[in-house]
Amino acid sequence: MSSRLKDVAALAGVSTRTVSNVVSGTGAVAEETRARVQSALDELGYRPNVAARNLRAGRTGLIGLAIPELHSPYFGELAGMIVEAAQQRSWTVVIDQTFGDREAERRLLEGTGGRLVDGLIISPWALGPEELTGRSRDVPVVLLGEQQAHGVADRVAVDNVLAADEATTHLLSTGRRRIAAIGVQPHLRNGTARQRLSGYRQALRRAGLRPEPALERAVTTLHRKHGAEAMSALLEGDERPDAVFAFSDELALGALHVAVERGVRVPEDLAVVGFDGIEDGRYANPALSTVVPDKRQIAERALQCLADRIYSPASTVPPLDIVIPHRLDIRASSGRTG
Amino acid sequence: MSSRLKDVAALAGVSTRTVSNVVSGTGAVAEETRARVQSALDELGYRPNVAARNLRAGRTGLIGLAIPELHSPYFGELAGMIVEAAQQRSWTVVIDQTFGDREAERRLLEGTGGRLVDGLIISPWALGPEELTGRSRDVPVVLLGEQQAHGVADRVAVDNVLAADEATTHLLSTGRRRIAAIGVQPHLRNGTARQRLSGYRQALRRAGLRPEPALERAVTTLHRKHGAEAMSALLEGDERPDAVFAFSDELALGALHVAVERGVRVPEDLAVVGFDGIEDGRYANPALSTVVPDKRQIAERALQCLADRIYSPASTVPPLDIVIPHRLDIRASSGRTG
DNA sequence: CTGAAAGCGCTAACAG
DNA sequence: CTGTTAGCGCTTTCAG
């Protein structure tokens, strides 16, 4: 079985104190002793027991990442970058999926008291601002993509209203006038969909158009399937839209698929713009225009926030509100026609 | 700060033993005492310290998942299912990305001695069979998608040769004769690409065709970009293929994109089949035919293996070799023409 | 420079 | 039914 510090000490003929010093590089050890200890270490293939070290240190070197679902490309890409950024800081990431479940989100937020993790990055869907403000948590928390909670915890998100406005304005600039929005989510409390809707309406109004309820389609999830269903409904409606702004790339890809399948010409008859900048969109047919949040920066800043709070627990810096830049990638699905 | 068992005991006027019993539901506790302890528990918002519990129990409740990259749809979907299956077994998953790096893979495999995790699921890319057989590890390991290592550890994988044969045979059955293969990876040691290539060749030979080196395209990664590049090269070649079998859906989607963009009619002029059954393919234009491994079952069986080894460490059951079923989903990209 | 020993918070064997 | 206590393996204070 695996050997302990004590075994190594016995083999090298020194105390555990000295072995510990050699392992961690702490303190001063005579060169001769160090060599002897090192060979004992190698011979036994010693690995420090993480649990014991954690218990002693009061830190685990783990951070939690709680996201709705790992299989969606957006969260998959983001999670990958967070894991990578964490590795660079010598942290290990523990992943939980909430599936947008209120209880799961609440449990994770409150259950962090077990000190399994030194910090938590959570992307809440079902939890509203008031629920995020629970009893004060004992590990630092960073909220991802949540723009309603003020002063509760550090937040990292793009400016959804602005981004949606830009996407819609782009469609208007190509001459579209009946622009549908796919992705309204009245059942979620995180405000993302609401903000994108509001940016969309804002752009329409500025162009002198009036938002039409028939063009604002609700979905139960952000998956392709529901984008496809929403598109079907729109195509079967009385007045077809000439453009679609989908609140996620997945919805947009579902919509695109249905449109192309039914012989609608994209972008000539229908322009499509998505949101998230996932890799799939780049290779879709036609390639999908999309709002691209700087995911790499989301990951970096979120970890930076955690690091600051973890290493300076006494810090009185108020909760940060970090706005991540985004850009609009215009591709074939909304390319200017003739 | 967070309270300890001792604090709760003091508040409730009992010993830590009793509190421990209440928390864990072990032993018998008088109803009256239990109530008193419970209210003390609630009042202090007690959470057991995971590190201490782990140290005591010799288990952490964590399992490691080491995959090349989280952002690729295949691994994203698979990781999601593994996290889900682990949650059901009350395990938490720690994710590491190896990016197919030999050193990273080796480190993870050997570094499991720290007992951070109770078990490890790893999908090796760069490590060959001989390297997998290192010093005997002290936590159970499950190999994913590795079919060369015999008797080293439990393995869970689809029958790549068979699956590739089926995909190729399907293309042959639609009348294709110049079938290209995209995805040869001479630099990787995990054997997956080699096996798919061998299944592909086997099908060709059975049909009386001879494999042509010009039609077997190597790639450096399985990403869409390299599928696109391989397709470009094929289209610019002297004799165009009338079908493509890509060793991953991502490669297939990259190829599909380039083909459609250049006006090649799919499936009339070119049929495309991928491998992995990722969600993107279903909504591609045209929808992508693909070999679909039962990912849910991969996740389930891998966890089952770990559970068996972890809970019966003394088991003498030899390393298992689990073959996961797959199916061929024929969609528009290879639909029979005329 | 190195040894002895306390203690992180918890569980469980051993009393009572 | 409940209290006392010995460690799990490590780091670190205090001596030497």
From TrEMBL, chains A, B:
The keyword RNA-binding does not apply. Gene3D superfamilies: 3.40.50.2300, lambda repressor-like DNA-binding domains. GO terms for molecular function: DNA binding. Residues 3-57 form the HTH lacI-type domain. Keywords: DNA-binding, Transcription, Transcription regulation. PANTHER family: LACI-RELATED TRANSCRIPTIONAL REPRESSOR, LACTOSE OPERON REPRESSOR. This is LacI family DNA-binding transcriptional regulator.
